[in-house]
Amino acid sequence: xxxxxxxxxxxxxxxxxxxxxxxKFRAAMRSRVPLLDRITxxxxxxxxxxxxxxxxxxxxxxxxxxxxxxxxxxALVELLHTATLVHDDVVDDAYERRGFFSINALWKNKIAVxxxxxxxxxxxxxxxENKEFxxxxxxxxxxxxxxxxxxxxxxxxxxxxxxxxVYFEIISNKTASLIASCCAVGVASVYNxxxxxxxxxxxxxxxxxxxxxxxDLLDLGNDPTGKTKGVDIQEKKMTLxxxxxxxxxxxxxxxxxxxxxxNHSHQRERVAEVVxxxxxxxxxxxxxxxxxxxxxxxxxxxxxxxxxxxxENLRQLVAFTVxxxx
Length: 326
Known about the structure:
Shape: globular
Radius of gyration: 20 Å
Helix content: over 70%
Low-confidence stretches: none
CATH superfamily of the largest domain: Farnesyl Diphosphate Synthase
CATH class of the largest domain: Mainly Alpha
Structural class: mainly alpha
Number of strands: 2
Order of helices and strands: HHHHHEEHHHHHHHHHH
CATH architecture of the largest domain: Orthogonal Bundle
CATH topology of the largest domain: Farnesyl Diphosphate Synthase
């Protein structure tokens, strides 16, 4: 296997498409309302690595030449994704995202909710105007699953009794469904074969699950002394390393740790104690092994697709998502 590539190298086969995508995405958000235009300009300015459009373009290129339909599919995914992020920030009372102020921090909740609604509607119209119902069906299913995953997490988080099975159900819906839709949309935009679209969706699902477990691990860091962010613990989120550690604990340990999370997660030394517990019970190693297994399963699914640069770069993109350090 080739040595690991950085993100710029992974983008290389679709670099031109990614550049064009920025203009098309900006155009897709355009409005005649000046306030909306100011806000959407701010959204474009604070964009991240754009991993999701990259999955769309590489998945499409792996099958055939990227088309205008692929660009619309990428814009559709990004519009729906951005809408859910704007709404999530309102739900979570979050005032920052990726080092920038959130929309609700700058323009308050009412406007943020309406902006999220606007972005959702623009995504729907983009598909309907071009009669790309198959792409709309894929992405709409992802939005449904993301909402269900979020609500399931809220319901379960109150009692901190999430099992590993429920954890995977939550992250499959909340995180993996969107990356799965990116890969399915990419293939569906250029290749009308349901079996291959479904295989692309399954590949993206595996990647999305591994992506979320990596986020769990990043929040805990590599330091068993507890010098870490521990944001998930502060927010009382049940992550895979914590779930496994609790399963390995006796009843008294389990009650003690759950009590710390429920009542003392705002205290740095208590968060550090929970982190040490997770390390000692093998939670980090277990989650790492689970992530690597999902990575291997995703790469195995890739072998059924045409062997070309796009496929190899998709493989490298999977490696990038599980080896990143932030």
